[in-house]
């Protein structure tokens, strides 16, 4: 899409990418700049422009992925302005987005449509690692509850036969299969018992098969 010349100055002051486009242009009276392949498209650019112009908008778990990726694409770093968009988005990611499992999943879902930039800024890997950490932490803290209803045999407690589906498993079913697999690998690497992943795998399979069944009926 095109950027009109009237919009350029605030963007040039904070974006290394746009500054370079302007400086490399042979047209001294350049009136428009064409940008292609911007992650998140026009919606992402609009948010970046609002940031440059000081127009208030809410940073949330729903838009933080696209903001972080467009900030990287436009090179909105501290080299061009103090408290620039890369710094602001990184602060939100570290202080808010990665602190809860549901937020991590929301950001990871948004990242699926922002590849490969979301991988480049390590947003995907950080979300996956945080999900694995938080899920394992929750599993450890609720370990005693998992054994409720168990049957005592000798000196050991045998778990009940009905599998317990963790509260966060429903969130994971929304992920793409490759992302879901990476989350499970990360959880296993952090010590999550493979047998304990059974209920989560079953739930994901049920959701996926339901989607495939609906797709088949619609053909």
UniProtKB/TrEMBL annotation:
Biological or metabolic pathway of the protein: Protein modification; protein ubiquitination
Domain of life: Eukaryota
Keywords, sorted A to Z: Ubl conjugation pathway
Gene Ontology terms: biological process: protein ubiquitination
Entries under InterPro entries matching the protein: NPH3/RPT2-like, NPH3_dom, SKP1/BTB/POZ_sf
Domain NPH3 span(s) in chain numbering: 166-219
Similarity comment text for this entry: Belongs to the NPH3 family.
Protein name listed in UniProt: NPH3 domain-containing protein
Organism: Opuntia streptacantha (Prickly pear cactus)
